[in-house]
């Protein structure tokens, strides 16, 4: 397969990023070092990652009829992403994420805006695009009922479903059933296992747990399979998970094994954290190949 077809159903935000050398306490005002407006949203981030890594990507989402919305659509187009299924809504503002970078990590407040208007009806409208995909990539910054509908539709058409369960919330049993791969980080993994009422071993068979620089873990035949990560100079961890998920979707859609796909995606996530900005730091396939070749 030369260019896998990836459909991303998810959020499109403008990230409002403030950098400082410390995190303010409650009630405290401090001076920051830098402010930036950067295209983001977990859905859009994952779409950009997949596109840069060779996927033919279609984005399904919503933005407001405002300057942020217009900029975000243009940004996706520049990445070669099909935006014909991104709706512009006159009665909603574009979603934003207020991000604070301090002390080597990030804190984020997301205001969904138009993302909350991505409905089940929208997904039904775009069934053909989903049916023609090799993989559908989902997250949880849009209404949960919409995520379930997209997963159900993809599952019905025998399209691989990759679910990034972030921001974490209790997942309906049907969503877990429809998902082929679920990609929590360590915190999300603990919450998923706590919330799940079925046999935990059944859930584990679908999980790929991301552990930052330590790499990833998945479960096979009752064993934990660890795929090592990469040591790099960390500049900004924003979007690292999104980079990983876009990469995983592309490689699985190409028919690669889970272990090989994780190894590739680990390299993508590592390269992503060496630059500032969720999307700006996302590598190309050529950059990833160079990193893997140097091992």
Automatic annotation (TrEMBL):
EC number, UniProt record: 2.7.1.15
Family per similarity comment: Belongs to the carbohydrate kinase pfkB family.
Domain Carbohydrate kinase PfkB: 4-284
One function term, GO molecular function aspect: ribokinase activity
Pathway: Carbohydrate metabolism; D-ribose degradation; D-ribose 5-phosphate from beta-D-ribopyranose: step 2/2
Pfam families listed in its UniProt record: PfkB
Gene3D superfamilies in the record: 3.40.1190.20
Residues annotated to bind substrate: 13-15, 41-45, 141, 242
Stated role: Catalyzes the phosphorylation of ribose at O-5 in a reaction requiring ATP and magnesium. The resulting D-ribose-5-phosphate can then be used either for sythesis of nucleotides, histidine, and tryptophan, or as a component of the pentose phosphate pathway.
Domain of life of the native organism: Bacteria
Binding positions (ATP): 185, 210-215, 241-242, 266
Protein's UniProt name: Ribokinase
Activity regulation description: Activated by a monovalent cation that binds near, but not in, the active site. The most likely occupant of the site in vivo is potassium. Ion binding induces a conformational change that may alter substrate affinity.
Principal localisation: cytoplasm
